[in-house]
Structures are given as C-alpha cells and as structure tokens.
C-alpha cells in the first residue's frame, strides 16, 4: 500500500512538472503543421464545391501577413488543380497536398514567428 501511494505521488509530480519552452525550430514546425492543416481544409472545400471567390474572401480576413501569404498561395495552388483530378481519391489528394505544403513551409526561411491561431 505504501509503495502504491509513493508511486501515485511520483506520477502526479511528473505530470505536474513544467514543460520546457519550445525552441524557435519547434515553434516554426508547429506553425507549419497548422499551415498544412489549413491546406488540407482548403483542398477539402475545393473538393466540396466551395468556389475560389469564397476562399479568397475568407483569406482576406487574415491579419498576419506571413500566414496570409501562405494561405493565398495555397488557394492558388488548390484551385489550379482540375476538380476531376482531386476527386478521384479525395483523401489521398488532401494528405499528399498537406504534406507538400507542410514541408514547403518548414523549408521557408523566417525571421520571426507569425502571430497565428493554431488550425
């Protein structure tokens, strides 16, 4: 019983320990994951007949310039695909595009972290 109590206290202390702050690279990777998730959603919208004008209108509300640049580029790329091509295997198209955008974002040089809400 005493060992169980000690184990529970130890687990509680480990669970409450402070997390180390993220490095700049880890923060950028997290940001790029969000950009990839946004690319997935934009591709999904395209596959479900959301027109480009509506996507651009929504993107115009983004305040952070870095994020806005990425999103506008994603919209241009997504709407350049023929609809028939991206609806053959919709999930695979979204996954492949999301991966491509995430990798492109990670490889993009940056000076500061954008102000964004995780997507």
UniProtKB/TrEMBL annotation:
This is Lipoprotein. It comes from Acinetobacter terrae.
